[in-house]
């Protein structure tokens, strides 16, 4: 009889430990990857902000095209690293592009969307919405 209890204990203990670990591991939040060095994008947006703050929205609209091109070219490398963070930046980027490309852009709206884009580039996990 003792041998049966010992055999059961030797079987149940590892199974319980393994099952408990699996339940914990599957419920633990997944660590997401960083998007890497975004400084080149930040530099372009800073240029756009400088132009917009001087009131030169035409030049700012031209410069943001450089940002858009670089962002689109980097998508295949950056997006897979953290699709959620990439999407947050892309959404803020689209808002800034839209604000600058209106037929009569509002300086206040342009400055607001650029500030939001900078904030999201600095902290991509925080959505701009």
Characterize the structure shown.
This protein has helices at 2-27, 39-53, 57-78, 83-100, 107-122. With 129 residues, it is mostly helical. The protein folds into 2 domains: 1-30; 39-122, no CATH class. The longest helix is centred in the first third of the chain and has 26 residues, at 2-27. The radius of gyration is 25 Å and the shape is rod-shaped. The model has no long low-confidence stretch (mean pLDDT 85). This is Histidine kinase. It comes from Rhizobium vallis.
Key phrases:
about 0% strand, mainly alpha
What is the structure about, briefly put?
This is Histidine kinase. The chain is an all-alpha fold. Helix content is 75%, strand content 0%.
Topology:
Layout: H1 2-27, H2 39-53, H3 57-78, H4 83-100, H5 107-122
Helix pairs in contact: 2-3, 2-5, 3-4, 4-5
The succession of helices and strands, N to C, reads HHHHH
Low confidence ranges: none
What Rg do the Cα atoms give?
Answer: 25 Å
Describe the sheet with the most strands.
Answer: none
């Amino acid at each position: 009889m003792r041998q049966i209890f010992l055999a059961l204990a030797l079987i149940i203990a590892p199974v319980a430990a393994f099952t408990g670990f699996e339940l914990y591991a599957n419920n633990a939040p997944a660590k997401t990857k960083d998007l890497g060095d975004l400084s080149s994008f930040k530099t372009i947006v800073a240029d756009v902000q400088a132009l917009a703050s001087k009131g030169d929205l035409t030049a700012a609209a031209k410069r943001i095209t450089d940002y858009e091109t670089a962002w689109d070219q980097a998508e295949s490398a950056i997006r897979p690293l953290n699709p959620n963070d990439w999407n947050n930046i892309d959404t803020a980027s689209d808002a800034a592009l839209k604000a600058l490309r209106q037929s009569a852009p509002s300086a206040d709206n342009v400055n607001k969307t650029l500030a939001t884009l900078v904030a999201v580039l600095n902290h991509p996990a925080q959505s701009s919405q």
